[in-house]
């Protein structure tokens, strides 16, 4: 009974105090909150179902259903997304509410319009996985079991919203992809067609990266920033180009670290495993390390 | 009203076009789809509950329930798995439908039969974790909080299906484990008893690896392929032994990379952290790097 | 019909045998089981909602609801947590049942009491993320999309339970955080205010680490143990200080490995990427490696 | 353990035998089954939401949503209904499968087309309830708490399908209404505008009834059949007009029973409580019973 | 494809038209809607759990939980109810919004305060069922399987809200009880302690009924209105006393109909089955009908 | 804020007081509670699915599934039912716990054994409905839309448990049927094969009724008790034969009331609508009332 009595007498004060601390830093009614976060995860699933429809369910003999089902998912997603965008636009910037609504409409229309093109590009990514991994046996296997496809699908949607100036939502999307795959691509990164990440865990691709066509990356690769300048208050200066450029047809093996906004990997280059690069390399380079030969001590340990 | 009107007028065309792009590359009715993917995740959970039964729920005073509960989960899983296997067999290969059904039956029966043996082996993995980590305090803690056990449990099931020639499904299983743990073990890898991966994030174990008994691996270890040969069309040649062999009683510390199908780590060897190895080492080796002593600059930065 | 007949005749025996193997090693009725695991995941979500309340749902115009909602979540969480703690205390140790119940009450009361202070500290962590990442644009974005905040929130709760001597539960919490973020912090680690982990995948922070105030860590950093001593039965000796100390105002870049219980990184130091450190460095150090310049081979590959 | 053993050994036989008995009388794969039953209940709810849309949920500030929401519900309902109709048409009659599909399409299109008209008529029913019950205070109260509206809404939809020759489904709909309200209206009954049933429990309205405009009925009224003729095998002859006609502006008080296919209640008539009628009455009749005065025995019982 | 094309082209117009018809008669954003209806059903369940708590669930060994559980349900119900009341007050009457909020607070506080007294009275109803039905064997059986208790519990709550002037909500509650039990008690009816309805289907108790202590009613009984006066527009005049008074210790057998606002059944009376009464009877009456002896025709039919 | 403050300060006391009132009359931990009630509703659904299996779901091409599915439902139902029976036996009677468990086992085994026979009998009920209602067109329509079948199916199961002496549970089952159909059959009633109730709302069949083969009943029929004797404390004497016997081949039309334990309706008789009978009638009787001819007043009302 002790715990019960204590809860009855103390919970009101503790609740009050938790609410107050939170309110000091956050406006609790001008946020999309964890509920918005969950909505965005749902949106992603709906977009995925619309992009990769299947007749695998019980109504598989009904052609009509596929088309209706895609349409319904798009409609619902569009409305939900519009509302979330409206909300973050109003909260985040100095935009007028009416303008925010109008802008939200346009952003959503624009995204939905681009979906067929996004789908076309993802097909090149699927093809890249198929051609890039000897372990795979079918396109379907790639669609259903490759983290690369999950990650790049979410990225290509989030990137459109990022370009349209939507705050917060693209990052929630990219963090969702990060959670599912261990691949952390900032929605600001610009990535060309026919892109493949093998295994993927630990990959980090920074906000101002540009990546060309037909690039292949392995697990643990970082495309990051060098140290960044602070402003007079000691805060990092935002909006500077901080991450590298990867040109077409580049392969980057596992564990490589490439840093800096001025660093460009020229086309057709190959970057070896565990390479640490903070400077550009020209096209057609092959960058490798004579790995220091390890000491091997034979005999009874 | 603008968005609504636009959606009403444009969604049919966009849905149509998404469907068409997808159909060009995938047969939308000969797939297990995302729904099949979810079924496989459920299967995994059912197998887990059957392998590690507990009386922790509200009916904890009823002995009968445990046995019935295990049995029901096995029955349901068996039927669901059989149907999924049937479907992927028919879609994937040139097998006749009747033959596919018969084969699916046999594969499932074989897997269920092996479960007690699989469970026995996993118990050695649990024991390996207990003995291998000074931070743990009980077997139960390991079962409920070690990613290694989650990963190896799924692997040992997926590996059986892989050996039986089931397409796609084993990979969906292994990617599910990857998502949950950050440990990416291809279902083709052959792994001995008493296996333990500590922390685990970023571990990659390739399709044609063989790993002996009593092997311990830390986070970030890659057991991967060197570059792989292409066929005349520039596609990777599939089915070649590409990944290393790890013999009994080997320890591999965090971040080590071991590559190549001819690379064998002899029994009782220890591979140090961050080691890069593309050649075999004999039994009883201790492989380490004199880590380059870092430059330490004291003083006011 | 074949599979059905086989299941009908063989499942009872296989169920029986799975149950027996499990019972040999686990007491199936003295465990919190996978159900307890799920309860703990729910607890974490409830605590999160109480710590970061929002009026974002449909009743957003009702002030009362926030306070009631926080209170209800705390009450329910408190009761559920108390029961789980009771159970693991009784199972795990030689404590008497009545004592276990009393202890569980006190532990829960203590945790709930500390929540406002925990919340205050997490606010410093949110601020650290804001100041430490030029890519972010608002505190809300951090709360909703940074794995660092998710990880440290769970850690700060799990750590309290760890200090109170609760078995298993803190580890289930930390492994939940690991699964969501790829960041593996043992609940035993002691971490100061204003803590930030960027990206985070692959970070490992060991049980006996101590980390000061204003420390920043990047992805893939390990704060681990060197090899550990075995007792006369070959089992690791538990309870020894095995992991490093990180003093105030230290930055550790991606992929760095710092090992050993005697290793101390002095305050205001910076540890560079991929550094391997098994010895202490004094305050104000800057530890870096002249990264071996890679071989760059230009020209047609 | 006894129950468990018994179940393990006997369930296969009992299952087998249950399956066999069922198969003797039903074709287990040519049915919509209990699952179809549930789908129909859902359809009803979707139609209801489309007919009576509200902005009461959390997105209440978004005009667009209402329209989209109505549309999505109609689309989904249409597809689901079409499939169910297809199935019952194929199973039930000698129709060719292709023809069944085509017919199902037409029936659904026809129903959806009629919805606005159905909605208009239901509004007259709502108005009839408002004018007919002194206890009500608003149209909204009627919509949300009058069984009459629930019953007549379902009936007006089911009746359209009945007229189109759809088997089984209209009856499942009407039985759903019966379950919810205690009002049992056969989908074959033809009912005019501005219809109101007060309280309603126990009302029965038979298949071949015709009911005019502005009719009001109280609880426990039966509009039923007299005895019905049997064919030479002793089975009831189906398809005969068996139930009464109720003309415009008639009121029928509680517990009245009106039987027979030739029985017509002329317009503007009032039928008193508990009246038993098996013959027609002309227009403008007032039919009542001098209720036999009850024996009242005063005094100490 | 036909249905799909048709839906794509026609649904927008039909949705539009359904929305418009609805808007003509209802304000779609000033309603609690079907969602509010569902919330009220949930409220009822929560109140029921708070009034009849049980330790029957899995945590049955934790005393604390009962108390917390009751409290949480009351808190949540209170808040939800307050919001619904606020909404219907604002919509329904000419009350100012602030006043509505204040009034809603007071109404809810008042209801919660009365719950212990309501519970006490329901216990007398349970006792009345136990004493009134020879078929029952325990109080628990009555609580879990008697429609009378379900109906009167909901009524006693709805009646408080009715008295407090809350529109719509009490009627939604009473209609919920009607749906579950077939017993239709208007929330306006005033009912004394120790009340029992046996079987219950078809019972109707009108808005202005008053029922004394220790009254027992059987299935199919109507306590209704005679015809009611219309105003100059032909609408029923609302707010008149229209239904009978039943004094203490009265029994009314099945199918009896008692009508009229001036009709009083004196205390200790017994009304026989199928009696039709539109006038008062004094105390201690026994009202019965010499049931007309039926014609019994023996012999071969 | 007012409501919140009030709730915080008063809820603990009110909760306490609700708990205390309840505990005075009920033992809160020796009950199956509302949760048990819900379990029983689920059991009924599972039994229904086992008795009327269908291949209507998505796996309709898999013969094996039907058999497995029936078996799984029976197994789960058996275990759940056994636990509920155990609980009510222990609570309700003076039986020893071990004996209760053993008895529960036997009761469940007995019920499951009888299911094929129960199913066979229900098929005669389905046939009776088909032959007895000219409005029906197929057996499937009857199975999916006739309340009679739902009611009698539940009754035939509940009756077995009643005969086995299980307290409370059979009544919860019968009240569930009552809720769904408006037909209230006490589980004690004994009912022969080939039984049909048309429409059904308001039918009451008492505990000690016996009903022969091929009986047909219409809505609103009561087979009830006359007044019942009280013991010296004024409580009804339980366990006496109080309800009528209906012999084979009897038809009872709507609204008839037949009362008393000595009342027997001889075989092949027909009882007309609204008949009130408290005495036996011989075989082959036709009981009817010259319905008093109603007064019909023509002309302008």
Automatic annotation (TrEMBL), chains A, B, C, D, E, F:
Q: Give the pathway.
A: Amino-acid biosynthesis; L-cysteine biosynthesis; L-cysteine from L-serine: step 1/2
Q: SUPFAM superfamilies recorded for this chain?
A: Trimeric LpxA-like enzymes
What's this protein's name? Serine acetyltransferase
Q: Which GO terms describe its molecular function?
A: acyltransferase activity
Name residues in a coiled coil: none
| Native species | Ureibacillus yapensis
Q: Which InterPro entries match?
A: LbH_SAT, Ser_AcTrfase_N_sf, Serine_acetyltransferase, Trimer_LpxA-like_sf
Transmembrane segments in this chain: where? none
UniProt KW keywords:
Acyltransferase, Amino-acid biosynthesis, Transferase
> Which biological processes are named by the entry's GO terms?
amino acid biosynthetic process
